Structure formats: structure tokens, C-alpha cells
Amino acid sequence: MRVGLFVTCLTDTLFPGTGRAVVTVLERLGHQVDFPAAQACCGQMHFNTGYRREAVPMARGMVAAFAGYDAVVSPSASCVSMVREYYPALAGEAGDGALARAVAEIAPRTWEVSEFLTGVLGVTDVGAYFPHRVTYHPSCHSLRMLAVGDAPLRLLRAVRGLDLADLPDAESCCGFGGTFAVKNPDVSAAICADKVAAIRQTGAQVVCAADNSCLMHIGGALTRQRSGVATMHLAEILARTEEAR
Amino acid sequence: MSTPVGGPHPAMPTYLGMPAFPAAAAVAVADSQLRANLAHATRTIRAKRAGAVAELGDWEELRAAGKAIKDHTLAHLDHYLLRLEENVTRAGGRVHWAQDATEANAIVAGLVRAAGTDRVVKVKSMATQEIGLNEALAAEGITVLETDLAELIVQLGHDRPSHILVPAIHKNRAEIREIFLREMPDAPEGLTDDPRALAAAARAHLRQAFLSAQVGISGANFAIAETGSLVVVESEGNGRMCVTLPETLISVVGIEKVLPSWRDLEVFLALLPRSSTAERMNPYTSIWTGVTPGDGPREFHLVLVDNGRTSALADGTGRQALRCIRCSACLNVCPVYERTGGHAYGSPYPGPIGAIISPLLRGIGSPADASLPFASTLCGACYQVCPVAINIPEALVHLRAKVVDAKREKIISPERTMFGVSGRVLRSPRLLAGAQHGAWLGGRLVARSGRIRRLPRPLSAWTDTRDAPAPPRESFRAWWARTRGTR
Known about the structure:
The complex is a heterodimer of chains A (245) and B (487). Chain A has 245 residues and is of the alpha/beta class. Chain A has 13 helices and eight strands. Chain A has helices spanning 9-14, 16-28, 44-49, 52-65, 77-94, 97-106, 113-120, 140-145, 151-157, 180-183, 185-201, 212-224, 234-239, and strands at residues 2-5, 32-34, 71-74, 110-112, 133-136, 163-165, 206-209, 230-233. In chain A, strand 7 (206-209), helix 12 (212-224) and strand 8 form a beta-alpha-beta unit. Chain A starts with a strand and ends in a 6-residue tail after the last helix. Chain B has helices spanning 21-29, 32-54, 59-75, 77-90, 101-114, 126-131, 133-139, 149-156, 173-183, 195-212, 238-244, 262-276, 309-313, 329-333, 335-340, 351-362, 367-371, 381-385, 392-408, 414-426, 429-446, 460-463, 476-484; strands at residues 94-98, 119-122, 143-146, 215-218, 222-224, 229-234, 248-254, 258-259, 284-289, 299-305, 451-452, 468-469. In chain B, helix 3 packs across helix 12 (262-276) and helix 9 crosses helix 10 (195-212).
């Protein structure tokens, strides 16, 4: 299958290791991965903050970059939900018929990496090895917009050596919320404090998720507290093998 | 009699001049007692609701039915309201139309005076909180006694409600005991903070008022057009005292509360109690139709209030908020509400539903109302539990765009400049690559072992409590270009 990697601007800029990990996992499973360099940002931050007008050309750039792939795969549930849930409305609002047709073409083939692996490829064991205690934070958009369900947990359970710890109150938000984190910093930090306390309670060495944005938020508080708990994107755990140790 | 046509954005008098959400929320978040009370209460009720909903195999079908009935009714609101008026009138009641809070309050004040009294007992009601009825009646020399236990606590404490269903959720029982001892002249000596003792003290305090009141004021959860019947759903029975004992009953009801028929009510009597109190059925459901000689009030007045509802109805995305049945399930699951409580929302409607319904009813003219759509992480927990499937995140981002667009032509805004510039950079792979290199260079100046602990405003709002990651030397796209070549 010819896969277009939708790496997202955040992962591209700040967490390139996650993008490399997605490439590693998909190639290990025998798929051809391409990174269309014309991609930039999906426009979610602009859209969610009220700058819809600015988001429209960003959406046009995205759908143009990904035309013609069998599947578009991304390490961000949040950015995938932007494409699948909000691009159709955005195109309609802009009165852009060409954009609407391109969205209708691409949105149903755009997948977050865990739902792509389990749902489209039907794989749960990707041959990974990661001998550490790990807890999983189900990010809000993976859980409630994409409804990936237990796909990430099934992938983690199949990782050899991995000790999976249940996260108390797992389905609660981490308080990131995009620009919410700086527009309402006090509330955001208060929500994050409870998430971080729950993570530390598990005794996990690593907390993982399907969104680097939430991990950046949680990780920012974990290092500020000098907790010693690391953050890793789910794909980076799935990319680890005994050889790579 | 005027027709049910709405006016624009009237004010909620008691909430004028409230600060914007971030400032009010910061104060609330710093109150550790408040946060402890809220965390305990919301987590308890959240778990109970989940259990009550899980008992029903057809919850999603019920939810879809609730949504469909409300959407149909709202699409034909004029028809059902006139039908309601016709049937209330036929049953011996009188219908009054109020375009805004001022009109509604004046109608009620006139009716109370006409009844020859200056004391009324009141059923807990969101519509009367919204229009500031108690304050308006007080200004006319009329004393209002709230009879819902939690509303009574709020009233005695000279406070504001902070939750739709549990207005005193921000108070624990020790604080309630103090309020009773301080404000209730007939509080028994040696009152403890045992919930039963507190309830008994309130019961004794209210009993005399019920027996002597000439006028009762209520809202309504539902108004059935088919028969002109009004429905109040409650837990304590105090509401039933208010709607049966006084000679005159005045019900103040938002125009979106109408339902076509009794069959429709069935759906909502299943959805509402499980969503709000996690009960299979609420203890008291009072239903009345006009007046019945020799039984209950001799006079019944229905005041139908618009107060911004027709403006909300005109908003294609926002109108779904008018489906709300005020269950408060969205408050109990909201990560923001759990930390701030209700007062920060500057409206009797707090939490996720408040963040959309207050700006829809009042407009986005004030700093407080313009800040409300941003008072959410967009986590979607509210939408998931809403019994009438209001897509609150969708309405929030829609209202955010309205706030941004309203400011576009008016003022120079650093935020808008930032979003304009970042929009141009983030849609151009070439400019993005340049910015990534710049970010790495900038990060080298401020990062220590891969973390940035301090950034200038406005990003200091992040680094005040959280580290930021240092941008890596090589972005993903640079790595790809170096190792795989540009394809």
C-alpha cells in the first residue's frame, strides 16, 4: 500500500523522532511510505481558535499535497480529526467546491497511526520490543473524535517486554486544548497537575499517547517537576526492536 | 398581547460587568477548598450517571429521539407556541409574552402586586435566574423565598448559584451549617453539619412560608402544546408545595421549553433524571393544566420568555443549544468546570453549555461573553454525555470564529497579526522549513538540556508552569530530504 505520511507541523518541527518511527514501523510491515514535502500545517490551531478564514488556504495546501495516496497516515489523532471532522464544514463554509471534492476524496482515507495499524492493516503485533513500565494516556481527540477505542492498548499489549500500567482516570483531558493552554493558563495547569499526579501514581517510566501535542503538555509538567517519567509517542515505542536496543 | 418575536441580546442584570473568564477562573483555581468540593462532587455524580445510563440498552436511540423531537419543535416553534397559548387559555390560564428580561420581570411584578401581596415562594428555576427576577422583584419591594434547598443556601449566603442542578455545589456541609446559623433566624440551637439535620432545619424554616404564601413562582422543564400542561421535575417536593398551595401560580418559561405532545414527554422523562441526578426516575414530577376549581391555585399565569432565544435560533450552528434540557451532565464531566466551578462563567448557565448558551443569548459584546467560547479544551466529554446530543465543541469553535470575525475590522490586535503571519508560514513548506531552522537557533539561546524553562510573553503563560521542548537541529522534513531525497 502506498502511504502518504501526514507528519503534522508540530511533530515535524519539535518531535522528528516520531515521524521517523512511523516510517520505521510501516516499512517494517512492508509498506511504501512517502513524505510529500508540499505538506505544511492542517490549520487546526487556526480553525479551533476562530481564525477560520486563515485555515482555508492551509486546508487547500494539505489536500493538494496528499492527492493520490492509498492512505494518509498521521501520528496525531487531533490533526486527523481536523481533516475528517472539520474539513468538510470548512470547505462548505468557504464555498469552495473543488476543496470540498478534494476533502471528500481524502478524508475517508486519512488515519491516525493506531487505527491504521489495527483497523486497516489488521495488525496488532508490529514486532516491537520495549522492556519498560509504560502507561497510556488516551488523548481526547483519539478517544472522542476518532473513537480509536482500545487500538493503542492492543498494540502496546503486543509489545514484547512491555509492562503496561493502568492510568487512573485515564479518559480525563490533560488540559492542553491548543491555545487554551495559554489563553487560560491557570485552568490548564490545574487540569494538568491532576493528570501528572495520576501518571506518577502508576510508577511508569514512560507515558505514551497518540498525540505529541498532549505529550508536550504533560511532558512539560513532568520535567518541571523533575519526575523522571519520560514521554514518548506510541509510534516510537512500536518502532523499538531488540536489534535497535 | 404581543407576538412571540424576539429581540436582540438582552442583559442578565445580576451578571453585568463580570470579568472575562480567564481572570475569574484564575481566582477560582487558587481556592483549594472550592477545588476540593468540586472535585469530590463532580466525580461522584459523574460515576453515578455513567451507571444509570449504562442500565438502558437503548440510550443512544433515546438520545437520538430527544434530539429529533427538539429539532422538530424548534423548526416549528411559532406553531407550537401558539398551540400552547391556545390550550393554556382554554384550561383557564393566562399567557403573557415577554421579549426580554425587563418585560418578563415587569409582568411578574404586576401580577404579584395584583394578587395583593409582597411575599412569594419560588420553585428552583433557571429562567428566573437568567432574567434576574429575584433582584427585580426586590427592587419593587417584593420578598422572594427560594424553596429549593440548594437555592435557599445560595440565597441565605448572599451568593450566586454555581451549578445548574446543584446550585450550592461549591459549598460543603460545614459551610452550609455556618450559613444557616448566621442567616436563618429559626435555625435550631446546636445544629450539626449532618445532612439530615441541615435538611430538617430548612424544612422547618420553609413550612410556614408554604402555608401562608399567596403567590408561587415556578419555571418549567417542559410545556406541552397539545394540552397546555406544564411540567416541573424535582427531587424535594418543595416545588410541588409552591405549585399547589398558593392562590396564584406564575410560571416563567423560556420559549424553547415547549414540546408538541405527551408522547414526546416520555422520552425526556427517561433522559433527564438519569443525566442529571443519575436516578431512574426523579422523586417528584408535577404536572398541571390551567386551573381546577377547588384544587390548587385559582389563578395561573404563564409568562413565555424570549430573552435572546430567537437570536440563538437564527444561528444555524448555535441553535442546537436550544435543545438543552438543563440536566447539567456536561458540567459534571467538564475538566474546566471541575477546576473553576460555576461563578467564573459570569452567568447562571455555567460549564460547557454555559460557554455556548450565554454568548448565544446575550451576544458577544462584553469581554465576559466574548471569552466564554474559549473556556474549553475542546475535549468533547460534554458532547459525549449530552442527552440531546448538542455538539458543544462544534458550537464553541463556531462561536470563537464569530468573536474573531467581530474584531477583524475594528481594532489592531497582536493576536490576529500573529495568527495571520503564522498562517502564511504554516501553509508554505518553504517558510515552515525556514521557521524550523530559526526555532532551532532561537532555542539554542534559551534551552538547558533540551528544555526551555522561560519564554517571553505571551508564551510565558506556558512556561510559568510547564517546560517547553527545545526545537531539534534537524526537523523531520530536513531529515527526510537528507536521507531520502525530495520525492
